[in-house]
Design goal:
Blueprint (H helix, E strand, L loop, with lengths): L12 E3 L8 E4 L5 E9 L6 H18 L3 E11 L6 H17 L3 E9 L4 E10 L14 E5 L5 H9 L5 H12 L3 H7 L6 E4 L4 H9 L4 E6 L9 H6 L5 H10 L3 E3 L4 H7 L8 E6 H13 L5 E8 L5 E4 L2
Helix pairs in contact: 1-2, 3-4, 6-8
The structure holds cobalt (II) ion (2 copies).
One cobalt (II) ion binds next to helix 1 and strand 8.
């Protein structure tokens, strides 16, 4: 659909919608660019306060995925004011405001409309030095790939809707979705990271696919990919999602899987809400970045590497 729109022609628009990146970036001066992004969705959990926190953490994440710092945010709201108690909306907004505050940003306004179901999210403004922008596609051969949150929230939430998810599994998924990528980004900024994105609806392999350019392959060690405890068992019991099948279909010509079990594959394509950062860092800095992330309390794991082209854009194995 976007192909039909007039092309952007402002030379200060460093990243726009014609590259499939996490956020738009507009250069103001040689030292300063603004990062702009927005995201919103219908409730992913029953509790409105928790929903607010998750929606905000998800919207803020794209600023971090670009290497930026959050400065301000605006609320985006739709709410059925006649059918639902507005105290529920109050709780959603409280959760969102807390996350903006935690991000170091200031909530500066917003807009609401009446609608048949609640929708909440943020429009976020951040800043970045124009030379420090982290695009999706900047991976170099020899890089290691680091993931900063475990996978599986899509499967767990699907199972939860059918009352099939163990409570500790659900709680872990919620905790991960609420967690800001700020803490990972604050550490990442001190290293010579080549590329970064955040894992959301296209799943781990879908987003990794956006990072890979011609002449290189990503080798992924499926058994090293962090997974929320219980998610593999749920996938084995066929608590799977339509979006994961869509992601798998979209990527199938680009991905080669060697001896990967059904449930592992489901996890690798599982759509994430407010997922972790996927970081491509030079191999010589990978260990230092990994331990710095862990010292900062981030559940980071090295999950693969960028190599010369091996016949597929992504090779997945256990090893
Ligand atoms: Co993103
Ligand atoms: Co987004």
């Amino acid at each position: 659909v976007l192909k039909g729109l007039p092309k952007a022609f402002d030379e200060n628009l460093l990243i726009g919608y014609d590259s499939s990146d996490d956020a738009a970036i507009y250069k103001l001066t040689d030292e300063l660019a603004i990062v702009m992004t927005l995201d919103f969705f219908t409730p992913v959990v029953e509790d409105p306060y928790t929903f607010g926190k998750i929606a905000a953490a998800n919207a803020l994440s794209d600023v971090y995925a670009m290497g930026g710092v959050v400065k301000s945010a605006l609320n985006i709201v739709a709410f059925p004011e006649k059918e639902m108690d507005t105290r529920i909306l109050g709780e959603i907004l409280r959760g969102g405001a807390e996350k903006v505050h935690e991000a170091g940003g200031v909530l500066s306004g917003g807009h609401s409309i009446g609608d048949v179901q609640p929708v909440y999210g943020l429009s976020v403004m951040g800043i970045v030095h124009p030379d420090k922008i982290l695009p999706n596609n900047g991976c170099k051969i020899g890089d290691k790939i680091i993931l900063t949150k475990p996978l599986g929230v899509g499967i767990i939430m699907a199972a939860h809707r059918l009352s099939a998810s163990p409570l500790e599994c659900y709680d872990e998924a919620v905790k991960n979705m609420e967690t800001l990528n700020k803490y990972a980004a604050d550490v990442m900024r001190n290293y010579n990271v080549n590329a970064c994105t955040d894992v959301t609806g296209f799943g781990f392999l879908g987003h990794l696919g956006e990072m890979i350019e011609s002449g290189m392959s990503a080798v992924v060690y499926a058994n090293r990919v962090p997974i929320i405890k219980g998610a593999l068992d749920l996938a084995k019991d066929f608590y799977i999602t339509g979006s994961a099948q869509k992601n798998a279909n979209f990527m199938k010509d680009r991905v080669n899987m060697e001896d990967i079990r059904f449930e592992q594959k489901e996890i690798l394509y599982d759509p994430q809400t407010s997922g972790g950062l996927l970081i491509s860092v030079p191999g010589c800095e990978a260990d230092a970045l990994l331990s710095a992330l862990r010292r900062a309390g981030v559940d980071a794991h090295e999950v693969g590497a960028i190599t010369t082209y091996k016949g597929f854009d992504i090779e997945v194995k256990n090893g």
